[in-house]
TrEMBL record:
Key word Transferase present: no
Name this polypeptide is given: HTH-type transcriptional regulator
KW Transcription regulation (keyword) present: yes
The species this protein was found in: Methylopila jiangsuensis
PROSITE patterns: HTH_GNTR
Record keywords: DNA-binding, Pyridoxal phosphate, Transcription, Transcription regulation
Lineage, highest ranks first: Bacteria, Pseudomonadati, Pseudomonadota, Alphaproteobacteria, Hyphomicrobiales
Amino acid sequence: MGSSSSWPPALTVDGGPLYQQIVAALEAAAREGRLREGDRLPPQRTLAATLGVDLTTVTRAYAEARRRGLIDAVTGRGSFIAPRPEPAGPALDLSMNIPPAPRGVRLGELIARGVAEIAARTDMDALMSYHPGAGASADRAAAAAWLRPAFGDNLDPDRILIAAGAQSAMAAIAAHLAGPGGTIACEPLVYPGLLALAQALRLTCAPVAADGDGMRPDALDALCRARRPGLIYLNPTIANPTTVTMSAERRRALLEVAARHDAPILEDDPYAPLARDAPPPLAAGRSAARVWHVHTLSKSLTPGLRLAYVAAPSPDDRARLTPALRALSLMPAPLSAALLANWIRNGVAHDLLDGVRAEALQRQALARALLPGARAHPNGLHLWLPMPDGLDARRLAERALSQGLAVTPAGAFSPGETKVNAVRVALGAVPERARLEEALRRLAGLIETSPPR
């Protein structure tokens, strides 16, 4: 954490009320970078003694700074420079799908304590160097331990790669398996990151018809016969954006189709830890000889670590993918990988997951009361909201954005034209639950009052 050594200010007799001078100096120091987000301010008595003013003057200044959102106060720890909102973004963001911060958890403190534990037993100079390969063996063992509740005991750490986020992992798998000009079979509405990587790699996303249980096996069989896709993309648990969780029967049927056509599957499964009721991953099945399982920690814990775990079909497959992954992202940050492995071993990761799941449950209950027509999973991070007759999702999103409220229309999830008229509403990016309630009420009001197309 930074310090406040370049502050406090010099006060003047003719500069106006002293408490306002303190607030103005705080604001200027934060704007100019002399005080940064997270910097601790002096205790009020210390600052009063330094400036030669009454304690009440400093107390009033800190109270005004909190009211303006310049500082945060943490009981027992002091006052800190608050994060500054990015002016270009929406005031209320219901478009970014990230996990909500668990109540009562300070990630900064967990990170600081975890790094201190690692530093006490590790050569930090070595940790800060380049680390070729699929990840340190201890980190891969921790990854296997994290995935085993879903996979069962049959998960060899030698199948695991550690990647710098799911996006780079999926890009490496797509480049490795689909090849130049290849085809990826996917549902008609998919994670936009897949569409972006397909465009960057010059691959074609071919939509396969889906129903209320996900991709239809008969439609996949027909597409495999007609197009011979190099890869099948599935997001089986709390799918983004539709929130569908495939049944175990549907997963088995899709595995059978893929095996019949010798087509590999990319199983993108970021939300499974949130859903206590999800069937086992496709990669855990007996017919999973060509399933690549990608699990990012960005949706269940925090996006800032930029880590994903990849379970390759076999250790040999892992070895073959490693050069492709290295070509795209070189390596995951070793400190992030070590920190997460430490959290998995000492239980912090599971505590964080429980906290995210509990907060998501509360937010989904709030959304269900305000947007009763939405489709969602009780522990999911987003919901899927069909539009009433006569209301266009894209125009609603544009109108909402003009009023500082961001949602994502169905077109952002489609590899082509779509007739689906719905928006995805993400519930994790708005930090405070009260502000989320405000955002959802405003969205409900916009839906009710928007003119028909």
